[in-house]
Amino acid sequence: MGMTMANRFDADGGELDRRPRPTPDVAVQLRGREPASPREEILCELFAQVLGVDRVGVEESFFDLGGQSLRAIRLISRIRAVFGVEVPVRALFWNPTVAQLARAMGEAGDSRPPLVPTSRPERLPLSFAQRRLWFLARLNGPSPVYNMPFAWRLEGGLDAAALKSALRDVVRRHESLRTVFPVVAGQPYQRIVDADEEAPDVTVVEADQATLPGLLEDATRHVFDLTTELPVRAWLFRLAPEEHVLLLMTHHIACDGWSMGILMRDLAEAYRARAGGQAPGWAELPVQYADYTMWERGLLGDSVEASNLLSGQVDYWTSALRGLPDELKLPYDRPRPIEPTDRGGAIGITLDAGLHRGLEALARAHKTTLFMVLHAGLAALLSRCGAGTDIPIGTPVAGRSDEAVHDLVGFFVNTLVLRADLSGDPSFTELLARIRETDLAAYTNPDVPFERLVEILNPARSVSRHSLFQVMLVSDNAVTRRWELPGLRIEPELFGHETTKFDLSLFVRPMHHADGSSAGIRGTFEYAQDLFDESTVEALADRLARLLRQVVEDPSRPVSEYELLADAERQRILHEWNDTGRSVPEHTLPQLFEQQAARTPDATAVLSGASSLSYAVLDHRANQLARHLAAGGVGPEQSVAVALPRGELLAIALLGVLKAGAAYLPVDLDRPAGEIDLVLADARPTVLLTDGATAAGVPTAGGPAVMILDDPTTRAALASVPGTALADDERAAALRPDHPAYVVYPADPTDTPRGVTVTHRSVVNYCAWAAATYRVEAGSTAPVAAPVSSGPEISSILVPLLAGATVALIPQGGEPLTALLDGAAGPVAPVRLKPSDLRAMAGQEDRATERSMVLVVAGETLPSSLAHDWSRGGAEIHREYGPEECTVGCVAHRAGDDSGLVVPMGRPIWNTRVFVLDDRLRPVPPGADGELYVAGAALARGYLGRPGATAERFVACPFGVGERMYRTGDLVRWRPDGTLEFAGQIEEQASPAPAADAGDGTPASPQEEVLCELFAQVLGVDRVGVGDSFFDLGGHSLLAAVLVARITERFGVELPLKSFFANPSVGAVSAHLGDVSTDARVGSSATGE
Questions:
Q1: Looking at the chain, which terminus has fewer C-beta neighbours within 10 angstroms, N or C?
Q2: Contact 687, 695 (CB under 8 A)
Q3: Which residues are in the Carrier domain (predicted)?
Q4: Are 27 and 264 contacting, i.e. CB atoms less than 8 angstroms apart?
């Protein structure tokens, strides 16, 4: 780790500056130019493999490098295997270089016109690559993100005047370096500045070793004004009479990685000439970038519908990228910001020589290239890390298919989108075959500019992410040597400046020994710091290396079976983060309550309005009810339904049922009568406890026997029995911790009631943890305001009663927090709420300072901002997560300085373990989405009377002998610190939300009418509705800039391009402008006439 790449890569205007890093040894190509197309790049690799050499230049002869007949036959065989085409051996003898052979292979189907000098219009349009870069620069505002800075330390007698003249010579030679981009009516064009009109700026600065790093950093932050400023400049830092540092910087709109080699070669040649008192004597270039722009226009046309010579390639990409995911789900550490900062980081990865050899052997065996193997490995890694099975990855190609531009500085680089299909859990061998077909097809169609693809495919736009792909893979096979100037020793200079345009990029460079043998693969993972921590990307790099090692050992295994986790990481995820063991009493709930009542008999146990019950009285009356129920045959493995409002009878009934040994079955009186019927029919309780006021609303026909607790006869019967604790021989069977404590029926959208049965053991574990975590103790008060019909509400009574605290039963419609603040004294713990409850009490946050207060928020995600508001007010905020099947809460987190948008779910509670697993029950790495499984003491017994449903959700745990785990159906991910965060529900992932109704689209004001006309004019359509998206109607980035300019001109109100991009409809624009309609501005037609 920590390796820095020696070369700079670029990719569709999104090149990633890795600093601190050395400037590349780029200047002059050792054996001619670099590969100009994917076909040439693959052929270079095949030539090198067959010849057994380090690498082969595109202009080197196969036979000059040691090729002979047998090797020629092997090469033809490899070409046939990789490209799927038949090349006669004689063709190799006639075309022995990569460049010649690639051209011969492509001539049959290439009918495009040659690139030659051509006439130019008065306003020269931008190339498609420039259009995209110009638009992004316009969208994001002034920024150095597209700067291409390079620095060298020059030791010796430097002729500064010759250097300045040489740079001017280079700018004179290459029109792209003296092109500016004025804008008229939102439309940019290329204006080529006369060579005698303006020279590139060279700033000479006195510096020393201490000030140099800061000066370099400041220089690299220079922002080019593309409308007026030449896109190249230099700084010469003078450290001593014979020691300088040269920083040369271009804007990417005028240059690419290939171009830097040309630029430095020409600069060296010009410097040698100028130092000798001469002008450089180079031949005139065959074409300029302006000629390329017009040639490209002729091939592609100027609209999506235009017929052109590359229509077949357009058809291919339209089909190949149909249905592409808008965004990959990567193991991010942070949510994607609305406006990214482009801050980047980088870490190195090294694959050793043995693994390198294995990967090359795998490529040969499966008729692919090393790049394809690495592509398959990266796609497999991302898929296993939660990105899904449809993985689009970008890769750059030189974009110089015509020889006329091989020596020309300009922005030619294009980007291909390579789509990897991992559906059906393929073996790596099968995945590699899919990758081979996909990559070769893409390489056969490399000429459609990426910007044109975006216009044609019209993906969902977002200012926060790159269109079509967010991950880049770049292979560097450049053959270069050191830059040389006469009388100078030149070394690359390190400097710091990191930016990125993609979420994640992997740059790889195969290394070779002098004899051509594999020496390892060096790589760099670059990442957006908005999204990733360095540790996360380091872990990704480790996992890639681990995956590739296993692939070499056995490529026939399904991708899902390769182990991504290191032993230490697996240990941490499965064991260290689940190290939750704590000692909890092996008692039932009645035993624990009775012990507490004995310790604090006179303390207040229950408050209900003006009445109260002490612990002794509550225990006595609950014992009487329990003894009465037990005498009627009620006991363990039975249930007793309770339909009572919040009040002292409810507390007595809950404890009485538990003491009798039965399970408490709450009846939610807010549910429809039909649902209550279903619950009672499914649970088959022995008896139903209620009061006179409630009984009439409870459907009891054909149901259990009903006991009216406030009926005089019942009260007399209860009063006649002793109030001492029950012995086991008084119950139908001895009560044990594994007997059911309660049965609850969560709302079920299928109308099939499922009673979740929870044991005493699980409830005791939760109560012990909650009392300790929420500091529930004698003297504190716990309010209960919700119907006691679910696990959390049941625990709201049991937790305080087992800890010696007071339960305050709030009347129907009362707010628990308000009631406690206005009434009870002492600490308030816990108060169980939903985020919506906190919002409803906005303005009362500061009242939390009146006493110690613990708020437990569950049932919904908790926004960090809301938690912070109440924390600043003095409250202690906890988020709790747990389905009924996991006993109230199985994961919890105390909110603090949480940086995310929502408070994380947290960590497992005592004696509970959680696992984040893929669909094959394998642990997923931190950061990757997986389904949450819960094991341990928190688990319910299962679904009452439904063994099939229980077996479906409570499955065997692969990480503990004889254990079960509950499949929650919730998607979560591990954070690096071992906390869980929510990622959605599995069914939600399968069905995106429907788009909002845009209405009938009729303008509702004169302002909207004018906007609709402006939209239609720019788009060239008859009509635009108020809710129509500009891009859905065929708009693209450059047209958006034109429209924004016209809107600003028409209304006199600045409309930021980024605002338009975020919501590109008439209605949204009108809302942004506000009511600026006036007779002068809107009363006339939108044409301005």
A1: C
A2: no
A3: 34-109, 1002-1077
A4: yes
DSSP state of 219: H
- Of 675, 590, 668, 679, the closest CA to residue 629 belongs to 590
**Do 185 and 282 fall within a single domain?**
yes
Residue 521, phi then psi, degrees to nearest 5: -120, 125
- Out of 5-9, 176-180, 293-297, 331-335, give the one with best mean pLDDT: 176-180
How many domains is the chain built from? 6
Beta strands of 201-274 (E only): which ranges?
A: 201-206, 232-240, 243-251
Q: Cα–Cα distance between 572 and 975 in angstroms, integer?
A: 12
996: CB partners within 8 A, 6+ apart: none
Tokens 């790099």 found at: 541
pTM: 0.83
Q: Are residues 721 and 645 in the same domain?
A: yes
Residues in the chain: 1089
Query: Which residue bears the tokens 């890769």?
Result: 395
pLDDT in tens, 306-315: 445 678 888 9
Kindly give the residue spans of alpha helices, DSSP state H, lying in 9-95: 38-51, 69-83, 89-94
Quick one: angle between helices 760-773 and 589-599, nearest 10? 40
323 CB-near residues (< 8 Å, 6+ apart) = 390
933-944: burial string, b at 16+ Cβ within 10 Å, e else? bbbbbbbbbbbb
pLDDT at 1079: 39
Asked, for residue 27, whether it belongs to a domain, the answer is no
CATH number of the domain that 671 lies in? 3.40.50.12780
List alpha helices for 221-310, DSSP H. 257-275, 289-300
d(CA 728, CA 723): 15
Domain that holds residue 417: 313-480+496-557
Cβ atoms of 636 and 941 closer than 8 Å: no
Tell me the per-residue pLDDT of 656-715, one tens digit each, with 9 for 90 and over: 999 999 999 999 988 888 889 999 999 999 999 999 999 988 887 778 999 999 999 999
The phi, psi pair for 974, rounded to 5°, reads -80, 135
HSE-up of residue 765 (Cα within 13 Å, Cβ side): 26
Distances (CA, A) of 715 to 691, 708, 1045: 11, 9, 83
- What is the phi/psi pair of residue 34, to 5°? -80, 165
**Helix, strand counts (H, E) of the chain:** 34, 38
Is residue 174 exposed (0-12), middle (13-18) or buried (19+ Cβ within 10 Å)?
A: buried
Q: Between vectors from CA 272 to CA 271 and to CA 273, what angle results, nearest 5°?
A: 90
d(CA 849, CA 873): 6
- HEC string of 1007-1068? HHHHHHHHHHHHHCCCCCCCCCCCCCCCCCHHHHHHHHHHHHHHHCCCCCHHHHHHCCCHHH
Both tokens assigned to 851: 């006493």
- Chain centroid, CA 664 distance in Å: 44
pLDDT tens digit sequence for 21-67: 434 343 333 346 788 888 888 999 899 888 888 789 898 988 788 77
